[in-house]
Amino acid sequence: MIVFDNVWFSYGDREVLKGISFTANFDERIAVLGESGGGKTTILKLILGLISPDKGKIIIDGVDITQLNEEELIPIRRKFSIVFQEGALFDSLPVKENVAFFMRELLKLPDEEIYRRVRELLRRVGVEDAEELMPEELSGGMHRRVAIARALAVGKTKMFLYDEPTAGLDPINSERIMTLIKDLADKENIGFMIITHVVYVAWQLCNRFIFLKEGQIVFDGNKDELIKSNISAVKDFIKELFFRI
Ligand SMILES: Nc1ncnc2c1ncn2[C@@H]1O[C@H](COP(=O)(O)OP(=O)(O)OP(=O)(O)O)[C@@H](O)[C@H]1O
Ligand SMILES: [Mg+2]
Predict the structure, then answer these.
(1) Does ligand 1 have an atom closer than 6 angstroms to the CB of 9?
(2) pTM
């Protein structure tokens, strides 16, 4: 379970989060929505302990992570598979070395075992033929799949965290990545938190919606509550959805 209890965070004197509280189970399917620069990516960084809050508590699986050192944070980070906003791969390494990277660093497995796992992961995300390619040779959709494979490589994943997983993809590839996200979650009964600007992606994949505005949560509810809401940010969201469907 993830608990944010009155979390405040600023970059220098720029206040980004002003008293955020929510509780999420690892098997939930949550969309985090809100304007650009609203603090969405910051929430993911806080969950992983990459930054720590100025005030408030963050509790992961019963552990208050705000006081942990780098070494103590490793088992916390391994509970999550994260695909960052840029989905960035290491440009100078072929696909198979990208996926192998954290396995080598963290798990210290023999090569044979690493490459066996790499092949299995690439198969799971549907790019088994891309093993020897360099990142620059991949299409946007393949790039995102390899990033997902790399995210799956190390953890004993309890939850997926996706930051703008469909950004920059054409509609067909967006749809494919959405299917992959859903299939991975269904197969292992693991939840996810998705940050997205794309209303349709959130609607299709998630059953809980958290809206951020000016550093605070202005809405946190399910589809029914979303449709009934009178909050302007939520109404704009619904409006956009009707244009799409
Ligand atoms: N390392 C940093 N140093 C200083 N300011 C930062 C840093 N990272 C983010 N910010 C600022 O904090 C605010 C929140 O950033 P964050 O990345 O969480 O927003 P976001 O909601 O993910 O936005 P987007 O939808 O554009 O990805 C922004 O105004 C951003 O400019
Ligand atoms: Mg962001």
Answers:
(1) no
(2) 0.89
